[in-house]
Amino acid sequence: MTGQRLRALTYYRVSTKKQLETDYDPDGNSIQTQREDCRTAAERYGYEIVDEYLEPGNSGTSITKRPVFQALLKRVAEIGDVDAVIIYRRNRIFRNEWDAAITGRELSDHGVRLISANDYTDDTAEGQLVASVLDSINAYQSRAQGNDIKRKMAGKAARGGTPGRAKLGYRNVHETIDDRSVATIAVDPKRAPFIHTAFELFATGKHSIRSLRDALTAAGLRNRPTKAHPAGTEVSPSQLEKILRDRYYLGYVIWGGQEHPGRHEPLVDPELFAQVQDVLARRRRGTRERVWRHYLKGLLWCARCGSHLIFEPARSRDGKPHFYFRCARRQGGHCDLPRFPLTTVEHAVEAHYATITISEAERTAVREHLTEAIAAQQSTTKALRQRLRAELTRLEHREDAYLELVGNPDWPAEKLTRKVQEVNLERDRINQRLAEADTADYAQAAQRINALADLLANPRALYRTLPDDHRQAFNDLCFDKLYVDADEPDTPLISHADLASAHEPIRHYCDQLSAQRPSGKQKSRDSRRGSQGAPPSNEAPTVGLTGLEPATP
After folding, report:
1. Domain Resolvase/invertase-type recombinase catalytic: where (predicted)?
2. Pick the CATH number of 170-284 from 3.30.70.100, 3.90.1750.20, 3.20.20.140, 1.25.40.10
3. How many CB atoms lie within 10 A of CB 273?
């Protein structure tokens, strides 16, 4: 290099971007300290600083994974307009002795000196020896600290604690125990209901990962907010799949390949988790299963041996599929219940509805309580609209605040544009939800309730008018199980149902609302089926998406 004044580049680095937010200065306390020491070193050695390179948020990584440092080396190699590179400390740049040796050799090959503002710097053989010793000591300390942290994290996991940041559905909190602040994990009341719902819906087999993600997003699930994304980002399909496979939500902590009982509260029970893993395993197979759907699947059981009836296809000689119901134990010769064609079973179920009667008093009770439910929903919708409009006002204020930052050198135009785009996206979503809330026709709903109550006078006639998906819902309301026997060799007969009559659940519902007896928690359909297993198919009963949004907003 020629010229009267030697030229130098300075390189500053912080481990995390949060270290840039520790002072009024946009670069934070750490960078400002590094800058002052490097400027002092430049004056001491007689260099003029011509450019600065700042590397934020690349903790513990090799120099090959630091883009800013690689840009500095590229400038040295291709432009060659500097005489030295000044750094704060060698251990701020080099995590091991190999990085230090490679960088030193590369700079030396281009005639550029490496100066550390706070370490001994000398270009003699003795100075190079001291630098290599410092690099070796720094590398040892870095590895020792890393091993110490790993041991402490493994010990915490073995005791049931959760190392690191809480998973989605939980939050990091501090509890005071014996005047000590203890870091622990608590259930996130805002997001935990979404996680449980995700497991429930996926266990039905009716959702793909992507469709489930879309439904949860529409219902309001977001990742925790950050400074860059105050409203929280959407959960990605891959993130959702990891959640569904993660035994942490079952109550376990996995660390270093070892599983330990956790101190945190599980969000799902073992049965539900196992059902989700079964669905995931079926979809992971190389050959895709063909799933045949029918509204009676999961409802029919054998009156002779108590096993469930399987819905299966068979093909005629011309290749057309024909469908049957058969007892699960018939194939091994353990049950003699005949195999019935689908249409005969459908007729048998329809005929069974002729045995059901619902009194006028019960129909009146249903009408009154459903009308009350509609009124309550109308009130909830009004409150939702008010909340959404308040959210729109908040977004407008945020957008105004961003627009006022236009021209501020600390807020680049690209960053402001991204922030405004996020606000617009969130506004579009809220407007869509507001439009959906405004389309509810409660007068029409009341008319339908009265018409439904009138139809309950003749359940069989009502059942005949229903489409298949509504028939499944009506069957679920009326029966837990229907037991099938043979009236004649090829004619099925519904011998009995688990419930004495179809109006028993309606009576129970009315009794609960009338407070004539203490209300109990109604068991789910799956839990009432007993120990004989899940529904005999790859599709469980439908779970509506209307229950996606948790009660806690």
Report:
1. 7-164
2. 3.90.1750.20
3. 21
